[in-house]
Amino acid sequence: MVTKDKTELPDSTELEKSKAHIIVEIIEYMANSVVMKTIIKKSSGNISVMSFDSGEGLTEKTSPFDTFVQIIEGKAEIVIDNRPHLLDSGQGIIIPAHSMNFIKPNGRFKMISTIIKSGYE
């Protein structure tokens, strides 16, 4: 599996508040890269949108927080505690806190990641 460091877009591209956005259009694919744009970042959690070029994924990790992942374009394989879950556009899954997980490359795709930190204090 080929993995790259995430590229985060500069804060100047932050989404305008109180305005509707087409989320799948706010981030583009970059060749041989995983790109991440933070939509909201608070001490209680954050929401990010990510694009993955073909062959790109994220290495195995754990998080102390529950994470909700929703595919907004394409499809992706999300592996949680060695169990693969193939998600199509429009589908989402909750990755439980402290679970080993990774994103396996499966063509180009975009997703939203929501991490909720409150309730873990």
Can you characterise this structure?
It is a single chain. This protein is 0% helix and 54% strand. The model is unreliable at 1-5 and 8-12 (pLDDT under 50). The protein is globular. It has no helices and ten strands. Strands 1, 2, 3, 4, 5, 6, 7, 8, 9 and 10 form a ten-stranded mixed β-sheet that branches. It has one domain (2-13, 21-116): Jelly Rolls, CATH 2.60.120.
Helices and strands, with pairings:
Elements: E1 2-3, E2 6-8, E3 34-42, E4 45-52, E5 56-61, E6 66-80, E7 83-88, E8 92-95, E9 101-104, E10 109-116
Parallel strand pairs: 1-5, 2-3
Antiparallel strand pairs: 3-4, 4-10, 5-9, 6-7, 6-8, 6-9, 6-10
